[in-house]
């Protein structure tokens, strides 16, 4: 690989970091000190569509997508990219079912809905579950760019983690949602440019798009068969809907571009796998290795890409910290105090919460390094709680007969079962008792002086199916693909929640605003029909009475 010009690379990186700090200082010290809850958490509800959309895309993207998706596609093929279709389907569902309810509430915390629909216990419990999920997810978000930066520069991973987290905590604490959104918008520029440059350079190197597709087809790699707080920050529902549509489109494009990077990496190294050739320790480093290899001829490109990866991570972390601080304040602290503090006191509490959560997440990075696969770790940890979160809102918004007991049993069932599945699978993989089959790689084109790595990774295991090698003693449920985890967790919670609610019905006086518009309409039509039927019966009774008298 070419020697990098570190002066130019560092300048590209430092510019991005400097802009993040400047934006935080501007919104924290110049334009206002963000001393009210509305200003700090919702930007005064006067944000514009473009920055909100860019913020949503960047914060949901993270380095997990930029580094994890290409690595996933390189190792396992394009099956993961089927998730791109999910964004279209989910966005349509959110626009017509979930978003109208939450936008009408205009709440700082979406969990306020749960108290209105069910009770304070459900709200408090799910707030804790959400806090746990964020604290588990953010360390993955931090680890990914730290790992890439460490590989490219040689700087200790943990030193970089402390530096980058300190910067993120600083501008999130000082600037509030406005700083988060506008920093995300700026960082999205670095992210988009870095992805485009890498794709263009990769296509030039392998000789074009057709060569990329051909190489990946020959190896069977091509195969195909939430954020509410920032939507509420927009002034009208139509703008919130537009932002969601643009967000879905942007996320789909980014996912496809990231997947394309994975295809390019395979087309480049199809005859000499970097892991087997001992150039890198494992597939986690495949993208940084590729970037340095391909982009080293153009000064500043590597620094720009690393800046893009770090930008995406900062965006995700800052958004999560901002949202979670508001949730903890509204759903836990205020409820515990039984007294609503002044705006100044509330602002101080929220900012202190950001710092505490940020520090906890920073130190949890040490745990993430021991786990397998970037995308797999991210989805596996999220799936422990995401089924419970999705189900309780879905039951509340779409199932009028759902009650507190039902949703509580549903959440607990989902969490317990998913903890068992996820932890069992991770332990089995850590002990070498479970391995998922990767796509074929080759070392036929490697130089003669390369010391190849031993590739007997399936010894002692039997091939259960085309995708899995497993020890006979491992429970078969642990061999499920992590891509099904979210669906399984959600279905468990929904089924249990509905069954228990029907078995133990309760009297509920539900405000129609807490239900999806389509459900409100159905209830209105049902009530109207019932009223008409009752009116007809009354008229019939009166006619019969009159005839009897006659």
Automatic annotation (TrEMBL):
UniProt membrane topology term: Multi-pass membrane protein
UniProt keyword list: Cell membrane, Ion transport, Membrane, Sodium, Sodium transport, Transmembrane, Transmembrane helix, Transport
Pfam families, A to Z: SSF
CDD domains: SLC5sbd_NIS-SMVT
A GO biological-process term: sodium ion transport
UniProt entry tagged with the keyword Transmembrane: yes
Subcellular localization, as worded in the UniProt entry: Cell membrane
Gene Ontology molecular function: symporter activity
InterPro entries reported for this sequence: Na/Glc_symporter_sf, Na/solute_symporter, Sodium:Solute_Symporter_SSF
Residue stretches spanning the membrane: 6-27, 48-69, 81-103, 124-145, 157-177, 189-208, 244-266, 344-368, 374-395, 407-429, 482-504
Predominant subcellular localization, coarse grouping: membrane
Protein family membership: Belongs to the sodium:solute symporter (SSF) (TC 2.A.21) family.
Protein known as: Sodium-coupled monocarboxylate transporter 1-like isoform X2
Organism: Sipha flava (yellow sugarcane aphid)
